[in-house]
Amino acid sequence: MVAGLGYLGYGTAVVAARALGVQGSFISTAPSVIQVLFGALIVLVAVGGGLPAMQHWPVVRQARHYRSLRLLYPLWNGLCEAVPGIALDPVAE
Prior knowledge:
- The chain has 93 residues and is mainly alpha-helical.
- It has helices at 2-19, 25-28, 30-54, 58-82.
């Protein structure tokens, strides 16, 4: 949305500057800046459209699960230190 608003705002400013007869680097670099803003807009819309579908990919689900477990580890470690009997016995080899 920000890229789209930037694209519209910059384009509007260029059109208004041209209508007022303003000259300078603002006008001469406008086509390339507008092209970059439009490209960013297209890429961001495509990525935003694909994100909901990516949540169901097995790799993404596994990464999210792993991150959740890593975030919970300090809590689990503190609980095991406070109440040692809650932890399972280590596996004998």
